[in-house]
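Changelog note: in this version the structure field was regenerated for every chain. One regenerated record is shown below for reference.
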Amino acid sequence: MPDLSIIIVNYKTPRLILDCLTSIYAYTQGIQFEILVVDNQSEDNSQSVIQTAFPDVRWYQMGYNSGFARANNLGIRQAQGRYVLLLNSDTLLIDNVLTNCVRVLDAQPDVAAVSAIQLQANRQIRPNLYTTFGQMRRAFYILPPSQASQRLLNRLMPDPQYADPNQVEWLSGAFLMTRPSVIAKAGMLDESFFMYGEDVEWGYRLGKQGRLLLLRDQQFVHLEYGSSEDNQQHIVTHINRFKSQVQVSQLLWVRKQYGIGAYLVLILHYISMIPIVFIGKMAINLRNRRRPWVDLDNQWAFTKQVGVFLRFFGKTLLNQPGFYKV
């Protein structure tokens, strides 16, 4: 039995996976591992390219673009290792982090899952990564960027305090190592999620089985958005912080974990913000002696985004199983 089953989901990213696997074999020592690649109907030469370079890779075809949760669940079902690692295709190892994480799980049976600090391509720590549910929920609210509004949100959605500085509420699915026994009790990833948010929801269930640790002395590189063709087209603004798929998934998570009330509060918040963002921008235009209806692209984009949320409103409100893909 291998010590570790590494599961990588592929969607048209053979070059990224080649680099990722090269780093795994270069730096991982002291454990036995297997690598499973689950393909989301890439319809390219990914399999031949990757298995020619790494013939030991076990390859599985989903047959359609199933997203993150469903593809990883297939890999989990096929895994044979003592531990399971979800690893993004756009990651690189820079040291023996996998062995170090295995040793933590070996030494601390009360730990349900572990992860490592994410670095950017320039080897700097990736900023503003969420590790608590409160951080994620507070980011959804569009309030004036003031200390007063932040204090209000912190009071309404506080973060937990842990004795262990490594302990967190959830871990990124870009690098998440856990035990098959924990998955058996917590359940696998929720397959209603297409992409994003599934690791947050899973973290809630994993955390009921033991502590979740973000190991501050372990690191890996996350290039991020390797398979997302539209990432560079999304301009982040104060009112448009997330892509539509991200927000639909996160709204689904809020509904599942916090119930109808918390979900409806968010939806009403977004609907009520539509006239506010238009009126606010028009007032700024008038103050600057400009025509009130110019430069409203950001406001129209926000309105369009709310329309996307509302397409999923009924299903999300009723928490219906489905495939929440934008």
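Spot check on this record: Strands lie at 4-10, 33-39, 58-61, 83-87, 91-92, 111-119, 167-168, 175-178, 211-222. The longest strand covers residues 211-222.
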